[in-house]
Every structure is written in C-alpha cells, then in structure tokens.
Specification:
The protein has five helices and two strands, in the order βαααβαα. It has about 110 residues and is mostly helical.
C-alpha cells in the first residue's frame, strides 16, 4: 500500500496547488484539441490520474492509493493500472521530495 499525505508546509502546498492546476489545464487542453473525447478517456491518462490523485491528497489529506485504484477500476472503463502507478509515483515524488528525483515533466 502506498499512502500519500498532504504536507504541512504552506510553500510546498502552494507548489502542489500549482501542479494540480497544471494537470487540470492539460486535461482542458486535451478536451479543446479533441472535443469529442469522452470524460472516461480524459481521466484514463497520466494527466487525468495525476489530477485525481493529487486532488484527493489536497482535499482528503491522506490517500490510500491502492484503495483509490480499486475505486477507479470500478468507475473508469479500461482503467490503466500501469499509467495510474506511474502517476502515483510522480505525485508521490512531488509530495515526498519536492520532485527532486522526478525525471522529465515540468517540475515545480
């Protein structure tokens, strides 16, 4: 089980909020580029999973990512566990070490 916990540091929280907004922006751009894409297909992407995981952390403070995966498997047709696990790793990297070990992406 991987558990992600919302940090207490207000500076880091601001950075995480910006990161969440970045993920949401990526989803909006994907929707603009392809207006016919389904909500399910948007969520079933790296950006979709990252937005869901980070949003849950920011709202709930602690997230059991295995439990969340099981919930998403029931809700998202074609749930992609590999992409989800990668998203959890990325979000965990930002939460636990401010993205210092994250390869690629836009960083903080």
């Amino acid at each position: 089980m991987v558990e992600l916990k919302k940090p207490d540091d207000p500076v880091q929280l601001g950075k995480l909020e910006n990161k969440l907004n970045e993920y949401i922006g990526e989803l909006r751009n994907k929707k603009k580029e392809n207006p016919g894409v389904s909500y399910n297909d948007l969520l079933n992407t790296g950006s979709g999973y990252k937005a869901m995981v980070l949003g849950k952390v920011m709202f709930n403070e602690i997230v059991d990512t295995d439990r969340l995966a099981k919930d998403l498997e029931r809700k998202i047709n074609g749930f992609d566990r590999i992409t989800y696990n990668s998203a959890v790793d990325d979000v965990g990297g930002y939460i636990n070490n401010e993205g210092k070990n994250t390869i690629g992406g836009t960083g903080y």
